[in-house]
Amino acid sequence: MTTPWRTFLRQNWTRILGAIGLVVFVSFAYAHNPRITEAVLASSLRQSIPLILGALCGLIGERSGIINIGIEGQMLMAAFISFLVNVKTGSLILATLAGMLTGALMGFALAFMSVTLRIDQIIGGTVLNMIAFGLTGYFYQVGLVTKGKFTPIPIPLLSEIPVIGPVFFQNPPLTYIALLLIFVVQFFLYHTRWGLRTRAVGEHPRAADTLGINVYWVRYMNVTMAGSLAGLAGAYLTLEAVGSFERMMTNGQGFVALAVMIFGKWNPITAWGAALLFGFAIALQTQLQFMGVRQIPHQFIGMLPYLLTIIVLAGVGGRTRPPAAVGQPYVKEG
Question: Would you say 288 and 301 are in contact if contact means Cβ atoms under 8 Å apart?
Fold first, then answer.
């Protein structure tokens, strides 16, 4: 008889070995240079935030049966709108809400193309990306600057814990919100009626329809709501991570978020672990370039995060099982 623990170990042994190897590596690095190690770990968390928010966006959509290739465009457009609103109003809160609304509207557009028009969902997401790339590049004006950005808010006592404190408990508010959303989505996806209906629609929409679930409504609602998470990721880039906007500033993070979602098996908690791994690769690349490592060509160092993406998709992607009805338009009988 196979126990749940044995099943879990058999299905996730590569992730477990990777986590153990990463912990050992970080432990040796911390013993050698605590200051640099803390800086790299803190940077890893910051780099993982837009990835996990984008992964949550894609996860909710695909759990509903809708593929979202347009996460990159949603993040970029939201970053641009957040930037403009902050420049015009000086309000970080209004700018964040504007970014989330932008992502939600683009999510609604994707739902309309996928559910109502029933066009190919890959093409629909590509359309969103092309629109975002074109509009942000055309309307961006050089010389505009944001009126401030979110600053770190240390949590008393917890922020003083060695290693963990500076990494997890000395961050700006959007980082805390993103970390909280991981556990909120995990709970709602697996322990609420909404989560059950979402998973039912993504696995077998016709069966869900016979039970009285409005498949069209669930897909519209989830893809639109998930778009606000991609919008929050874009707002994070402009208002917290960078403090300004540049053309194509997302730099492929929306596509990497899809790899994070697949590596995490469409589960928020494991997707966060994957996002941290990718964030660590990006932070390590930055630190190596900052230290001026001359033994390794800088082109090789710069491609580390993308090389990791290819390895993950090639080695893990084929062994994961997406929701059964993902990418399939649903047509109600009768």
Answer: yes
